[in-house]
Structure formats: C-alpha cells, structure tokens
Amino acid sequence: MSIRYIKDCPLLPISKGADSFRRYVFDSLQEVRDMTADWLQRYNHHRPHEALGRIPPVEYRVKLFPNLYF
Questions:
Q1: Which helix (H) or strand (E) holds 41?
Q2: Sequence-distant (≥ 6) Cβ neighbours of residue 46 within 8 angstroms
C-alpha cells in the first residue's frame, strides 16, 4: 500500500502548524475500501468512546442488548 502524505499549509489558523488536516492519495479504489474497513473495525471494536463510558461501541451494544446479533 503506498499512500503519499500531503501536509496542508501550516499557516492556516485551524491547523496551527499541526497535522490537523491530512490528505491521502490512494492508488486504487480497493485500497480505499481496505483502509476504510480497517478504520471501521478499529473505531467500533477497539476505540473507547467517551460518551459510552470509555468502552467501544460493540462492547456497549452487547452490554445493553445481549441477545441482539448482527
């Protein structure tokens, strides 16, 4: 997977020189699909969410609806 990183202008007030804005140039649509699927997996199964008591959404759903399967 070859992703080229392009940093926006560090002088923008919003970015304040940090990596606030990121753009990626993908080589194929499949690369975008793969990266999106990976991100969704991490976001829903591993990343703790503050609004859910610092647990991932899937874990929260299982606690709230233990008999609900997808």
A1: helix 29-45
A2: 56
